[in-house]
Specification:
GO terms for molecular function: ABC-type transporter activity; ATP binding; ATP hydrolysis activity. By secondary structure, the protein is an alpha/beta fold. It is 39% helix and 26% strand. It is built from 8 helices and 9 strands. Helix 3 (113-123) crosses helix 4 (128-142). The structure holds adenosine-5'-triphosphate.
Length: 256
């Protein structure tokens, strides 16, 4: 059953499953036995990175997606942004979605920063006229004036982030997805990004943030969703979700 998206809803994730294949190197003998037995079992193992995850996010909500390494956070963000397709269930979003998921993913390395503003802006749904209008503001926010005509393959990771972040916020998205990327920016730029993210939240935009910086997400987000081994184990006020994750992390340390 697919949940109908309502006016005040920004994101509906309905019972999604995402599987990946775990590859093992097999000996020739194992492959021969497998062929002779009529290929009965799968030669590679599949595992569920997300297992029956459902989530309902209202417009204007600020959600932190929390969890230990490998719990499925980035996979969920990629499914919401449409970069990945689920193996089961469905994802629906309302309004323009801008995802800062892999820095510079939409950039073409042999093109200049200027050309990439037009390319990336178009990928994110802006018209050419819109991009032209916002071009100066994009470059100004990114603070990379002198490098705007340099090919982006010569950019540092911080410069990539600056340009990617600036383009994304200028698309004026309804839903903004951010994955652990602010880490590559220097402190002044991080502060600027956080101020911008808070401004978007204050304007009623929907935010979905993945970060291991728990203090940071606690200041930006109100709601915390905790993922463990591909399942949601907690969904509530961010302070409670952060406290729970810290408790679990401390438990893991004691156990090891
Ligand atoms: N393309 C892929 N192919 C195979 N396995 C994958 C792929 N992408 C993710 N995985 C696996 O899915 C699981 C969840 O990964 P994911 O990146 O979503 O975790 P995460 O919670 O974002 O982790 P981290 O905190 O380390 O960034 C991991 O076991 C990862 O190895």
């Amino acid at each position: 059953m697919t949940v109908q998206i309502r006016d005040e809803t920004a994101i509906v994730v309905d019972s999604i499953v995402k599987e990946f294949v775990l590859r093992h190197s097999r000996s020739l003998k194992e492959v021969l036995v497998w062929l002779l037995r009529g290929r009965k079992k799968e030669l590679s193992n599949r595992f569920k990175a997300l297992d029956n995850v459902s989530l309902h996010v209202a417009q204007g909500e600020t959600v932190a997606l929390l969890g230990l390494n490998g719990s499925g956070k980035s996979t969920l963000l990629k499914l919401i942004s449409g970069v990945l397709q689920p193996d089961g269930g469905s994802v629906q979003t309302r309004g323009r979605v801008a995802g800062l998921i892999e820095v510079g993913a939409g950039f073409h390395h042999d093109l200049s920063g200027r050309d990439n503003v037009f390319l990336n802006g178009a990928i994110l749904g802006m018209t050419e006229v819109e991009i032209k209008e916002k071009f100066d503001s994009i470059v100004e926010f990114a603070e990379i004036h002198e490098f705007i005509d340099t090919e982006v393959k010569f950019y540092s990771s911080g410069m990539y982030l600056r340009l990617a972040f600036s383009i994304a916020v200028h698309t004026d998205p309804e839903i903004f997805l951010i994955d652990e990327i602010l880490a590559v920016g220097d402190e002044p730029f991080q502060r600027k990004c956080i101020a911008k993210i808070k401004e978007l939240a204050a304007r009623g935009k929907t935010l979905f943030v993945v970060s291991h910086d728990l203090d940071l997400v606690a200041t930006v987000c109100e709601r915390g969703v905790l993922l463990e081994h591909g399942e949601i184990t907690m969904d509530g006020p961010v302070a409670e979700a952060v406290a729970e994750l810290r408790r679990r992390s401390a438990g893991d340390d004691e156990a090891s």
